[in-house]
Structure formats: structure tokens, C-alpha cells
Write a structure and sequence with these properties.
Elements (H helix, E strand, L loop, with lengths): L3 H13 L10 E2 L5 E2 L15 H10 L6 H19 L10 H4 L9
Antiparallel strand pairs: 1-2
Length: 108
């Protein structure tokens, strides 16, 4: 019974919390990039660039990954896998004697 009261309190607090946060509107600048509303160069809320300007902006962006990023990603994943491989064996229990290899020996 004692454990149910805090569990119900937490459940009610989570249900009473607002479902979504209310965010401010987003604005665009003259080139179509996101910018904070009210700053110099921001267009009015809801303004969109003309379709031909938007197509030119999207065409100018390059989305290729590149060889350097692929090599960096491979090194990162390989390093994480190497760290996992170097971890000591875990037999499902932990105590000070089995951890340092002194299992079965008398400690003096």
C-alpha cells in the first residue's frame, strides 16, 4: 500500500502535465533560411520565398557525405567496438574477490 501512493502521485503528475510545449513561430530571411522572428532581416510570420528561389536554394545545398566523414564514422564505430571487445568478462555476479582474480585464495 505504501508503494502505491507515490506511484499514483507520479502517474497523476504525468497525466496533468501539458502534452506539448507551445513554441514561438518561426520566420525566414530573404534567402529562405530559418531565423528568429523580430530580428533584423526576418520576414513576416508565414512568408515563404518564391518557388524558383526555393528550388535554387535547395539545389545549391550539397548533401554528399564525403570520404573524410565516412572514414571518421568508420573510426568511431571501430573504436567503440574495440572498447567493447576489451571489456573484462562478466559472469553475472560481482564481488571484490572475483573481480581482481583473487577468487579461492586466502587474503592476508
Amino acid at each position: 500500500m505504501r508503494l502505491r501512493v507515490p506511484a499514483w502521485a507520479v502517474a497523476l503528475a504525468l497525466l496533468a502535465a501539458p502534452v506539448s510545449a507551445v513554441a514561438g513561430p518561426t520566420c525566414l530571411d530573404h534567402q529562405g533560411e530559418m531565423i528568429r522572428c523580430g530580428t533584423p532581416g526576418a520576414m513576416p510570420v508565414g512568408w515563404t520565398p518564391p518557388p524558383d528561389q526555393e528550388r535554387a536554394r535547395l539545389a545549391a545545398r550539397h548533401d554528399d557525405i564525403g570520404l573524410g566523414r565516412l572514414v571518421g564514422l568508420a573510426c568511431l564505430v571501430g573504436g567503440l567496438l574495440a572498447l567493447l571487445a576489451l571489456m573484462p568478462d562478466f559472469q553475472g555476479r560481482w564481488d571484490a574477490e572475483s573481480w581482481d582474480g583473487e577468487e579461492g585464495r586466502d587474503r592476508r
